[in-house]
Model the fold of this input.
Amino acid sequence: MRYDPCKLSIADIRRRFDDAAASFDQADYVHRATSEGLIDRLSPIKIDPQLILDLGAATGKSGRELSAVYRKATIVSLDASAGMLKTATKSRRFFSKYKRLSLQADAGQIPLRTGSVDLVFCNMMLPWVADLTTCFADVARVLRKGGVFAFSTLGPDSMMEFREAWSRIGETDRVHVFPDMHIVGDALVQAGLADPVLDIDRLTITYPSNAELLDDLNACGASIEPFWKDPLPENLSRFKIMMRDFQNHQDRGDLSLDLELVYGHAWGSGPRPKPGEYRIEPGSIGRLDRP
Done:
């Protein structure tokens, strides 16, 4: 549950995940589930990556799982949050053969050479990206021709329970609307990534109480402002009304959140021409025979 990422600066997001770094692994069941789903979807793809970019690496769990699958690969863990990267370093076993580098950076400005990456693995970072096309364009830049971009994100049906509860009290912009998979696919193609394939899965998470649900969201960085802990008085009142409505409209004894999970992959097509620049394969140039 969060506001539109277009209203958030990188500093806002960095602060939020720095605060959540210590509690992230205990709270973010969704991140673990989608990481497993994404790695499973990579298994049919024949690839032997030497350099993997874990884009939005968080505490590095996905990187460790990737290193067990692709043993020859070096993993570059990139995240905007220094706190997340520090937690990832601390959790690394002393005798581990896992080859890992850390980069603190914005996903739209990846500090790696063009065409240097074999696999970009991006698990649940895209919900925090305001401009998908810019992000995808930099992924396409660093990805070698024939390399793979694999990602997971949330679809527009995610957290509908919160959206409906807010709308019933006259609020329509409290929960971010995640982009449809067709919009994501168009952004991939526009950025120069080839042959995108996307699929959808569903996940329902249940909680015994409002307090545990809210604490979980805050602990994994999914809530931008903890209204229930340090709010303005008017915000607290509206928030309590919404949560009471949310609870009253639950059909089950436990509280539940339904998530639409979008998985996808696309292929690197090599460096794109600059504006006004055209590239022609020499073999495609015909020969004009003089009479």
